Amino acid sequence: MLKTIDSLGELRGKRVLVRADLNVPLDGTTITDDGRIRAALPTLTRLVEAGARVVVISHLGRPKGAPEDKYSLKPVVGRLGELLGQEVAFATDTIGDSARGVVAALQDGQVAVLENLRFNPGETAKQDGERHVFAQALASLGDAFVSDGFGVVHRKQASVYELASLLPSAAGELVLREVESLRKVTDSPERPFVVILGGAKIADKLGVIDALLGKADRILIGGGMAYTFQKALGYEVGLSLLDESKLDVVREYMERAEKNGVELVLPVDTVVAPEFSADAPATVVKATEIPADQEGMDIGPETAKLFAEKVSDAATVFWNGPMGVFEFEAFAEGTKSVAEVLATADGYTVVGGGDSAAAVRILGFDESAYSHISTGGGASLELIEGKDLPGISILEEGTK
């Protein structure tokens, strides 16, 4: 069982550090998708209403342990303030004079955001000691800690793991909901249980396929990873994404799927183009007949129909990874069709974060049409795989 905010007792007047995941996509300083900010609201609102002095900490992007303007959390502060309905203070550093001053000035029910955690090398340091030193400095700014950044709970980082061991800690509303929703998929899914996997890199999904070959009834493969499966069957994939180092693994998975009675469904047609470009001319070909000078960009219309049929009777569906290059309108139909099928499905539907969650929002689907949309792509995959997530295990009952 995860420790909850209730376990922290009376919070009025207490400084509560909240590890959120505010790693939103930016176009310059303009937020292009505020989904992660909105996902943080239930926990932040609860703490504000409890009279806590809320100190939000997060990362954004991948700075190299030093400040970079393009990775500043400053653009997030304004949007967070709008959504909370109050002015949010901003510290221009993480543990320095600005952070200490901003935190000291907070009144009950007020909120502050500290600058990008990854501007300090201690956040992601490989050495335990370095992370611990940074975590101690962060801990000095708070009386309690709430972990609510599900997108980073699979990382052993200072603000995720060490900080939770230094202060009375609990899981936030988002982390609790994520774990509960994803464990419905892994522990005892209602059947038929259908998994849809896509995305560019097959290496990212091998562990999930491995774990689900004994659990799922059907696994539907689309996106860039499908071409390695097609190649493993001996078909031409042209200029499409291909991981030749994984061909033997894929063959073994296909054999195991057959042995376990798991239906492994591959595309029957593919949208191809001569180059990776938004305005490249698109052609639909059989998935087994991709021309040598063409690149697979999306699943084709017959595959979209096939996948819809395979999902139609599902009681549980887990989807992670787009079916094609959905950022280009000409190659978004496959991903759109999967999103639409899940939005209208009767079963328990989980969108496993990352690009899938972004696609749902970018393509204009109503998020409430899905049972759960995860905020963490990598974290959701590792939880589905059954891996130990450091940021979750440190919040179990019995730990500090």
Main attributes of the structure:
400 residues, alpha/beta, 6-stranded parallel sheet, 14 helices, 36% helix, elongated
Short description:
The protein contains 14 helices and 17 strands. It is α/β, with parallel strands linked by helices and 400 residues long.
Structural class: alpha/beta
Q: Please give the largest β-sheet.
A: 6 strands, parallel
Tell me the Rg in angstroms.
Answer: 22 Å
Q: Kindly state the mean pLDDT as a whole number?
A: 95
Fraction of helical residues: 25-40%
Strand fraction equals 15-25%
Strand ordering within the main sheet: 5-6-4-1-7-8
Distance between the termini: 13 Å
Instruction: Give me the count of strands.
Output: 17
- Using the alpha-carbon principal axes, give the shape: elongated
Please mark out the parts with pLDDT under 50 across 5 or more consecutive residues, or reply none: none
Number of helices: 14
Protein name: Phosphoglycerate kinase
Enzyme class: transferase
Subcellular location: Cytoplasm
Keywords: ATP-binding, Cytoplasm, Glycolysis, Kinase, Nucleotide-binding, Transferase
